[in-house]
Amino acid sequence: GFWDGLIVLNFSRAIIWLSKFFNDNYGVGIILFTIIVRIVILPLMVYQTRSMRKTQEIQPQLKALQQKYSSRDQETMSKLREEQQKLYSEAGINPLAGCLPLIVQMPVIYALYQAIWRTDILRSGKFLWLQLGHPDPYYLLPILAAVFTFLSSWLMMKGQPESNSTTTMMTFGMPVMIFFMALTLPSALSLYWVVTNFFQVGQTLVIQNPWKINRERREKQQEQRAKERKVKKAIKRAKKSKRK
Known about the structure:
- The chain has helices at about 1-20, 25-40, 40-55, 60-70, 75-90, 100-115, 120-125, 140-160, 165-185, 185-205, 210-244, and strands spanning about 125, 130.
- The chain is mostly helical.
- The longest helix has about 35 residues, at about 210-244.
- The chain is elongated.
- α2 (about 25-40) packs parallel to α10 (about 185-205), α8 runs antiparallel to α9 (about 165-185) and α8 runs parallel beside α10.
């Protein structure tokens, strides 16, 4: 079938092939496979990052629209959706862009799980203290997976103009969920989570560095305030000249 024959089987083959370059070290094979997957979907992640940043910048306009069309009747709600879509279009934003990386990664995680579980040589493989087909007995990988998940989410939240309760809940809730899931899943899958979220932290620091974004945002606000002061001064001078 398509899933087993094309996806799962080739995942298994790819990991085994990569492992051969390191004396059949299947843990290293999984790490290299994870990095390759992240590189392949990197353009999609960059697109998502840019789209999220644009969305953050238009939050004041979105809030203004929500206040303007605050009634819950069908006509007002339809008008709100129309105005929001118009704002997204003018800003060049696809509202669904934030979901794309997750939609892509979920089948990858499931296929990797099946490839490891259904391939004897991977399931019984060892890496450091780990047996790849069994959970980490020392809980180090679940802890690292949770830590890097938190760092990734925290860095992205830090770059936002303002955070809301949903963002905060995801930032702190997702690492906890990842930790408890990793306690019972094969350590090979936990290893994938650790590497992919470590990669995500580095990617965020390079592409969407929150300190750089906040600095640019402050500079832009300062420039805007300076322009407003100039306009106000020009208006005052014009009023004085009229009085004379």
